Amino acid sequence: MNNITPLKSITPFKEAIAAPGKIALDWKAHNGKVIGFRCISVPEEIIWAAGMLPFPLYGTQEAVRLADSYFQPCTCEFVRNIFDLALDKKFSFLDGLVLSNTCDIMKRFYDLWNAYIDAPDAYFINNPQKLMQDANRDYHVEEFNLFKKWIESISGASVTDKKLNEAIALYNETRSLLKEIALLRKSDPPLLTGTEAFIISMGATILPKNAVNPLLREVLAEIKERQAPDVFGARILVTGSIIDSPDLIEMIEEVDGVVVADDLCTSMRYYWHQVEESPEPIHALYSYMNKRPYCACMHPMGARFDYIKDLAREFKADAVIQFNLKNCQPFLFDAPLLKKELELMDLPISILDIGHDRSGYGQLRTRIQAFIEMFDIE
Amino acid sequence: MILAGLDVGALWTKAVILKDGAVAVYSVARTGDMAEEAAEQCLNGVLASAGISRSDVAAVAVTGVGKKLIPFADKQVSEIVSAAKGIQYLYPDMEGVIDLGGESTRVVKFEAGGGIVDYAQNDKCAAGTGMFLDAMSKVMGIKVEDMGALSLQSTAEVNITSMCVAFAESEVVSQVHRQTPKKDIVRGIHKSIASRVYGMVNSVGLSEKNMVIGGLALNVGIIACLEELMKIKLAVPENPRIISAIGAAFAASQQGE
Amino acid sequence: MNQQNHDRAESLPIPAPDLKVIDQMQIGFVKRFTDVKQAKLEGKPVVYTTVLAPREILQAMGVPYVFGNVLGAYVSIFGYSAKYCQIAEDLGLSREVCAAHRCTVGLSQHDEREDFFNLAYTEPDLVIGSNFPCSAESKSFLYVIDRYKTPSYIIDTPANTWKCPVPEHAVTYLARQYQGMIRFLEENGYTLDMDKLREEVAFSKRLNELIAEVEVYRRAVPTPIKAYDSVIAACTPLLVSKESGAELLFEKLRDELKERVDNGIGIVPNERLRLLWIGIPPLCDFKLLNYPEKHGAVVAKSLVEFLTGFNLDPDLIDPDNPLESLARASISSPINPTSQGMVDYFVQAVKDYRIDGVVSITKRTCCLLPGSQRLIKDAIFKETGVPSVIFDLDCIDARDYDAAAAHANLDSFVEILMAKKGAAS
Q1: Contacts with A, B 144-203, CB within 8 Å
Q2: From CA C50, how far away is CA C106, in angstroms rounded?
């Protein structure tokens, strides 16, 4: 990769990723309460409408230490890492924590947080795992209503439909701006690198949305003004288990891949669709969660695969890379079937196992390089 | 009552004679390929040193990974019990033991002079054991017995994040190529081992009244890193390698026939 | 037992049944397999499903069904785990994926099967999958759908974050899932007679009441039933229907146990310790469950009943409200995450079954238990003072099984418990 003028406007996003806690503490000093959450099946707008900051739980790349006394070492490293942080009181600034019905180990995190962390019990949104169907409407809406009540009990403020609609409008703007940036990667070459796009996306999940929207407009303006990066390489779509650091995207791009799109909860899946305007905002949030792209924890699998294929076509991907965190059952199960599906459209996929703590990154880089070298890009 | 205890490890066999409530003699020898032969020789050696014969001994107890290969022993004792009992025999006020073995690590919590309350054991992978240190010493080209002292000279933080030997070796090689000072890399290796042990200590909830035994207890670097994590001063008995053999003999005398 | 029979028993991968009725139960399993084969020959669509799906609905609609989990378990029990896991891995499935489901997937992807599996496995025409109770369960049936290109329906079961009582909106949702399952079966040629469904639900209630009676006898000291026998009993409601005499079998089981308990007969002559086994049973070495008996230690109770949907609360099952009550009972099952239900159940089990020590095994490809083991251990110790040992035991994929380590771990734990008991007396 060469001839890339660094984006100045990316700095706040980088800083957010490097020190998310600082963002939260800053909010607490000036604005109010902070509610931690994991995964993105949690409707952040309800938290925001109560005047509180939704704070996504991310890990660090350190080796797990204390959590192994509670979780067996064969369980997900990401979850063990954030549990380590919790044991180390790194989340002690949270005024509440909400978790949701995704994978087995996240449910265990809920149990162990309540049992061992010196903090108020976490809340659990028992969302359906079978989406794209109307039969889950009443259930899912009720779960959101109960969650809203819990949020109100913490904030002391009522979450009216008006406030909720305002929150939805704000978040929709964030989604729209992020998508506008993402679409700049459709061109050949893309107008920004995958690393830049990932940093902006993940940073945006952390920053308060009223602050992040002007920053995103600055990014758009700067990208349009700067000389297009001279990046050529195999166009890669990345999917997989939670990726909470730009390392892996950087690694691909250091070996002449160009990450043009992704199916990641810390990036494009976070903002690809909009919540519809509605006089019944809880129902609108339900519809959004029911129909937008989702991860391997959810059903139907076919819809997830279709989304990946459509994205690959739209962004003219040459290949797909799926990163599986060790022991991540949902993604490990999906991988061979996804491969079969992509073979039907002649789209090669490399399925790579990763550790959360950067162990084995030397070998991983070699494997990615070997995969990218298969594509003879002039 | 005279008791004999044997600890048959993968690399080393230890034998002790307990007489009048104290350790009379002990011996440490290579296990080699023939565990039964090594144990027999070790036992005969301590009997000779003590000036007694086999018939003077009330019972011969055996522990260690090779215990099932010693048919002439009167009693087999698990490594967990023998580690605990070894410390209880010599230091009756203690409430826990950390056994840092060559191939396995265990942490045992017990009541002072009483029964075992909880324990954790790692015998499935090299993380936290002497094997991890051996592998890294080869990669660094430093004698394993020099690693501990070298780590104490470290002045900068280096993290070896992987618990897996294969990946950790890779990390160490990268650090060496980056010209990171060896003393700092070595300390990172020790921290990695200590943190694995600390996880087990934490899961069992050891009190401050505990001691560290096993071959790796002689490594000052490991002890320093563990002390940093546990935030207490750790004590190591004079001969940490023979404690399990003592414990086997003591346990056998308590259990009776 | 004479020497010849003894040698033969020793050579089998499974222990010989101890109670007379267990042999009859196992024979009943074979009948199930042949019935399904016959139904297929008659042109009835066969359903591939999970043991935790509402079989009352399947029974009421006359649907022939095979349980993926049971077949996968048999793969391991009869010593074919290496073969079928390898088949699954050759498809690209990682070795980190649940071993039990690798066995199941491998079996479904390969047509040359051994005699037993040719009997037990009938190619499905429909798939009913479920996310209950874990991620692996939620995904493995997708391979069967992919292989046979079958129509499918997925039952979405809410996790139990409410303990008891389970809130109405969750019960209603799961009941609607069951209605969806019925519609799916109707679209594929079956019809539901509501009276039959009520009968099947009433029968499930009766079976669970009998099971509760059996459990009372299991709590006796000395324990009257071997661990392996209890596993077979736990599978019986799945594989032996009302028509095939399941009720009578459980009445016989209850009576055989009652006789033993009344006469103070235990499974070992000198029972010294009672263990609770938490974790998947050691399928590739079933005799391991009986191994502690050489020390006079018995596995008095295990987790296996939940894995087969055995121990539902009969008070929650209401034949007049079939779908909702089945939904409520299912969500309330201790195996349904989150962990609190399981924690509460095991704390109570330790008290009820007079347990001296808990063996909590970690299958390293599992996601259901390895995050709960410490929680369960601490809760049991806090409430009862009973210790647990947690150790790795990969006991489904035989390539990963380490019998020596398993024995050593059990020996150590039993040794410690004996010493503790000796000191206390």
Answers
A1: 159, 161-164, 166-168, 170-171, 174, 192, 195-196, 198-200, 202-203
A2: 16
